[in-house]
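Posting this for the archive.
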Amino acid sequence: MSARHHSHLSSAGLLRRQFLAAPVASILLALLVLAGALLATAVPRAVAAMHTAALGERLDEYPARELDVLNSTRAQPGLGPSASGTTLPEGVDAVWGGHEERLHDIRARMPEPLAAVTGDPLTVLFAGPANALPEGAAGGSISYQLFTGFDPRLREHVRLTNGDWPAVLVGDAPSPPQVDDGFAGPPAPESTDEPIEIVFAESVAAEMAWGLDEVRTLPVGADSQQVRLVGTFAAIDPDDGFWTHVPVALQPSVAFSADGSLRITGLGFADPSSWAAYVQTQPQSTMDSWFPTLPDRIRADESADVRAAVDEFTSEAYPLGTGFGDFAFSPVGEVTFSTGLSDALESAALAAGATDAVLATIASGPIGVMVAVLLLGARVVFERRRTGLELAAARGASDGGLRGVLALEGLVIGVPAALVGGVLGTLIVPADAGRGGWFIAAVFALAPAALLVASVPALSPLRRARADVRVRGGARHRWIAEAAVAIVAITAVALLLRRGLATSAGEVGVDPLLAAVPLLLALLVCLIVLRLYPLPLAALVRRNSRRRDLVPFLGSARALRDPSAGIVPVLTVVVGVSVAVFSAVLLGTVQTGVARAADARVGADAAVTGTPFTLEQQAAFAEVAGVDAIAPVYSTAPSTLEIDGRVRTTTLIVVDADEMRQVQAGRAGATPLPEGLGDDTGANDAASPVPVVISQSVADSIEGAEAVELEGEEFEALAVVDGRTAYSPRASWVLMDRSDADGFADSFVPRTVLVRFAPGADTDAVTETLVEIAGPEATVTTPSMLLDDLRAVSTTSGLVVALIAAIVFPSLLTALAIVLTLVVGRPARDRLMPLLATLGLRRRGERGLVAWEIGPVVVVALVAGALLGTVLPFVVLQGVDLRSFTGEDAQPSVVFDPGLIVAVLAGAVLVTAVAVLLASRIGGDAGAGRVSRALRAEEEG
């Protein structure tokens, strides 16, 4: 017996008995800690995964050639074998081995992490173009242009589909030794008088009208060279970034020349070893040597380091040969590399920064609510322990001992819960986001102990204070605190409005000022509610005093004199409702912006894009039933701007202004086409500047310039458009009418045709017909199709999920805060309700009194939160860039979706009402046993 009695009085036994006496409160606090730790570890990982996915999507928008670390030169490669060996076939190594070995030496000097996100070097060389007319053919309406390509790793990129592999061309100079490696093909010819053999892609051979074994003669340098087609090939991987470095290799270029003739251009590959002999003809050539970028290896959190490594690598020159320059026919010497990877990563970083700014702004409110609910949860646990701890204090227990007991229980509650929540967070989202989330989880683990220990000074019954009795001097301190909060909130808003849109988030990270503004405003509104709501409540008390019913008068009087709703529950209601409404407004704004962006990018009811469309196809588009009008985009070619002697590249867009006006009539966001564009009166006046429309990017570059010319001709800007057009994805462009464009572009075969549907047309049927006419290589896009794609973008879909979570999660926390608030006030009700029950108060009246404790202030807080939620977008969006979510060129304006906002408010009211109803049932029943206990407690004082 003594041993058993001793076990009950031990520290562990006392703690166990204390926990089992009221376990629900402790379990609830542990669940709150678990949820906080889970969110602390899972959310950063989810955001990191979203950033990496968005980075991959952003990089996919760029052709591989723009991302690869590239040197493009007109100089000739250094010929000769490698010193230490390569993976090239032996015969190819004899010609290209030394060049590839030097590329590997350069890669060895590449800094990390750039080396980790790039692959082994590749090289392709192509000569030409040169005229390749059939034997005996005279110049006519069709001309054929041939590029001759040399790829040291040809068989790694293509497979033979017909005929033979090309043989090695042997010139008068010593040629590389022939080996039986299966690569050289048939025996090599003995001199350059023999044709060089090539292979074509099947589609190129068909368009070039070039049959197997057919020989054509090309002018090459000062001489000529015969070319024989010996086989056809297909790409092993047509989507390989290699093909972006090789023009017209898989698909020929079919275009009209300025004189109206049709020009077909294709590329055929020769045996790579043939370059040793072919170079003797001194052909005009271009050689690309590059390290392919591997986007799937780039993580968003490493993008800044990759950009730094890119800048370091591209700032130096590297020896690629023993030559001296970058000139035609000269041996290659020192070279520099360039890449668009750094710009792409910077663009993605800006989008990620904007995402973080929005998420931080959304999260600040729920974080404040989470902290407030933790405070309430800790207070509930403390109130459950108060009686026992007060008894221990009365019997001589020291504050240090009591703190130790509470700290130990807090650790038992918090540490296991935080550990479980953190592990769950890492398992749910398997991404890498550093250790920051675990530090926050550790704070949640220690929070219960810290909050419980802070309650020790209030353990003496003599120190209890009545809520309805004001302490002298407290009002002054309250005014000081409230004034400080008001000053900080107003200052933060003023600084935010003065600063304007933040565009550096990708460099400096989350802006704390922007993130704190919603919570500061919510706290300010909360204090205003607590100051003002007693005024109408006092009037309600006076009105109820004239009624015969006890519950309305007593309930309103208790709510006024002894309010259960302090700053914590009011803050949760204000923040929860305001964040929900703000998120609903933001969600509507983003969804509307995405829809506008989709419509603006397509530019019509449908856009047909793909291979060049013939006149017959264009006519067929216009004749489709349900098509009202079409407008081809005749050219989107690179063009040269000369600005005070400086040269800048831009994109020249050629359209027929009348056709385009007809197709885009009435469309919001269409590129403006002034009346002077396409005006025939000035089309033939050579002395007049060409009328054009320019982008804001071009306007900024020519501002203040004295002499500006487009392809050597003066022009007049009739309008400036800020952003892109439906005709080209580029931000820098010049648009002119087809009637003025003859001297500015070589061909006018459209690759994009915009289509306007007739009213009432069957969209699906028209789209299917357009697809049939355009062919398998073309695509037809409507705004609704593009809208689905834009909504699927990682940043946009991630923001939508975050906004939905920001609507639901704070609402649940608000309901929990209301319940906990009334649980905290239960001891006072346990003393009051039984006494009222002895005076005849029924159970329904008891529940009514409980509802009165928090009902009035909750109603006011709901209204205040809804008003704050409608104001927040106009404040916060002054500093948040939403363009990365909507895809628009301009910051979207705030859009209120009435249906969504009403649904959110109705949900908030419903959740709050259910919470009040649930809380009113907690301790609302006064049985005889509780009456006797209450009377005994009153007698004992």
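The mean pLDDT is 77. The radius of gyration is 38 Å.
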